[in-house]
Design brief:
heterodimer; A: alpha/beta; D-Maltodextrin-Binding Protein, domain 2; five-stranded mixed β-sheet; 10 strands; B: MetI-like fold; 75% helix
Amino acid sequence: MFSRRMRCIGGLVLTSAVLLTGCSGGGKAASTEEAGSSSEKAEREIHYFSSRSSSDDTLLSLQEVTDSYNKEGGKIKLIIDSNADRSSYDQKLRTMIAGQQMPDMFDLDASPYAVELGNQGMLTDMDQFLDEIGEKDSYIPLALNYGRTSDGKLYTLPLEFSTEMIWYNTEIFSDAGISEAPKTLDELLADCKILKEKGYTPFGIGGGDGWPLLRLLATYPFRLSGNDFLNRLASGEAKMEEEPGVKASEFMAEIGQYFQPGFSTTDVATGLNLFLSGKVAMYPTGTWELNYFTDEKRPEKLKLGYFYMPSCEGAVTKPNEYWAFGGIGLAVNPKSFDKEYKDYLSYIVKNYSKVYFSHQHMTPQKVETGDSSKFDPLFVKVMEDASKIGETAARPWDVVLKEDVVSVINDNLPGLCMGEETPEDFRKAVDEALENNR
Amino acid sequence: MKVLRDKKAIALFLSPALLVYSVLVMIPIALTFYYSVLDWDGLGEKRWIGLGNFAKLMRDAVFVRALSNNLVYILIVMLMQLGIGFLIALLLTYLKKGRGFIQTVYYIPSVITVIAVAQLFTSFYSYEPIGLFNIFRKLFGLAPIAFLSEYRTVLPAVASVEGWQYIGIYMLIFYSALVSVSPDIIEAARIDGASETQLLFKVRIPSITNVILLSGILSLVGALRGFAAPMNMTKGGPNHRSEILATYMYKKAFTSRDYGYGSALAVVIVILSIVAVLLISRYMEREEI
């Protein structure tokens, strides 16, 4: 009996030993490999979890800057994990952080989530860092301050400076007898009506990605109150039942009838293609997609123009105040932010914008533009517009409101736009979400 | 083979699999039960709230919608997988040539990843640029439909994807069962003058009841686990019209960062799966008696 029990125990030990040997063997192989590579290069790996696509010029510019840093004696290997699907990126990042796996570098909006992370000391203070390296003044205030959280802290560095506009097909507009771009939201709706009667699809939108619809929803509130209504919604002081919320929901119910069928599952890339192929008359997007509209890149037949956020009666913000921001910023894990990493990030701050500008993008820092004739006229025009932007820029709702509220809005907006849900139902659903997330 | 009579030896051989199964399945399920009684956003302190999350579920209109959508989803998936799978299997038994080729063709979708199939069907359902289904509609003089955006079509559209994908597996199972029915019985029935319909309902189907029930369990559990296709194609929208329990659970846990509530939803899915399987297996036991 004893020997049989011993045989069992012996068997278990052997099984476990086989399993453990398997595991440790792999580990040993890996560590030998690491040791080999470290003796040859001694590179420091920095893992960057990015919300941008791998072909995005921000990432290409970062890699170029890293390469030149290494040429000057640095030994950094930037490992970029690119996740262009934004909602999926946000979910992965939050899960990684909840599982104590915060990347060395990652993209982060100045959202309530950033406030929570900051309060727990899980983010590097960029105010302090920029003061330390004396680079704060190199940034365009609108771009840098966009990354400030609701409590005024700065945890991210902007990698871009973007404005958003609505592009329109001038030939379709002319054919419909519309001589100029709409200046007000009422004119926009009137133009949509004319275009629809002419048989065109007035408005193309990547509704499947959520944010384009959110931008339109935010238009009335920004025009009527600046960012005040949004900030009061976020703090629980306001409700959608107030005038800006009512106007916003009614506007969405009306403009929704002019979107392309199937808009709620159309992603932004498909939406853009619809516009570029002349199938829709208007399309809202930002300067990060400017390269698709330049003389060199856009389809030859496509004649286009653009207009910024239309105004409305009773507006308190000026026509030159619209969507302008630094985009999702670069956050740094304070646990890995040592001397070597700090030196590398300083190099990025000092060199990134020059490289990014060479890709024909507006930059978050002031750069020498030099001879503008070498740039596409459209890029030059957009840059000129940007230099005339007013003091207040619209803040995106998906950055300021809590994730659960944004999720409820995103779930309900398509129904509102399709006429399946009334503006009252929509406001009620959002107000309930706001109440649950106070 | 003497060693297999020794219960301890059997236990020894089973223990590695049990260990792996426990680590990969049982422990996560136990942790889900633990998280379901917490209020936790993934960052701050975990607060114990007892059955608070479950009480909240009962008041949540979206949960009720997701649950009812889930029932419709399961129904569509099972009807397609079992109904069409059986029909094809039956037709194959009459086929003399090309059976292997047809089986392979029907089986191929089962080995493709769900995400690829979901992308494929998103293109098929597309309104603009026009997808395959709308091309057919136009050919028949019907107006195109935005299948994935319209309230009335979105749920059947996403459920059909999973239903379609695994038809091949059930076709194979049913075919194997149908050809295993003793030819003597069929021959005897034919001599007695049974028609093909009578042969099907009085001989073939009763002979493979257990296989049908087993397939029912597999299909039911598979449909209850449905997630990737609706999440990838519509994210449960528009306005929760294609929301099922799994997509709602995922969104609550990972989009809204309400890990406790998301876990409570996961617990409901686990319980529903166990109940469904128990009901069917009890029915099977009764049939055997």
